[in-house]
Design goal:
Layout (H helix, E strand, L loop, with lengths): L5 H32 L2 H28 L1
Helix pairs in contact: 1-2
């Protein structure tokens, strides 16, 4: 693992936050349309898994990128 300085860490977390915010905003926009089509229970579970996988994927991708 490479040694992280504070600026790199800060920049990385800003990047992650920006991506997550983008995803959340997009979901907020499309949620009403999807919710009308699908059962709420299924939708909420799927949404939770989707958000979790996106966040996890983003973090892992960031760590892999940082590790080089």
């Amino acid at each position: 693992m490479s040694t992280w300085n504070k600026n790199e860490v800060k920049k990385y977390f800003v990047d992650v936050s920006a991506r997550v915010a983008q995803v959340v905003f997009t979901l907020m926009v499309i949620t009403p349309f999807i919710a009308n089509i699908f059962n709420w229970g299924i939708f909420v579970i799927g949404l939770s898994l989707f958000v979790f996988s996106v966040v996890l994927g983003t973090i892992i991708a960031g760590l892999v990128e940082e590790g080089r």
